[in-house]
Amino acid sequence: MSTTIQVRIDAKTKKAAQIVFENMGLDLSSGVKLYLTQVIREQGLPFVPRTVNGLTSAYETQLLREAANAKKKGKSYSSAKAALAKIIP
Predict the structure, then answer these.
(1) In this structure, what CATH number is given to the domain that contains residue 21?
(2) pLDDT category, 5, cuts 50, 70, 90?
(3) 10, 35, 48, 49: most buried, per Cβ within 10 A?
């Protein structure tokens, strides 16, 4: 038994997805079915969500926290040459 789902999405995203699926030999409906099948198989998202920087959200948060901590407590040098001189005498 088949059922229908409706999804509201902007036209640009729909067209871009259609192009990707067409390049794979699929129509949009088949691509969505494939995605949902993978969600069931994986019991979750079939991919790791990434930020705009290409990192996982947790890793990006960790990097930002470490950068803020380094800025607050770390040493600073006037140049890369000065920093290297400190670690390579």
Answers:
(1) 1.10.1220.10
(2) very high
(3) 35
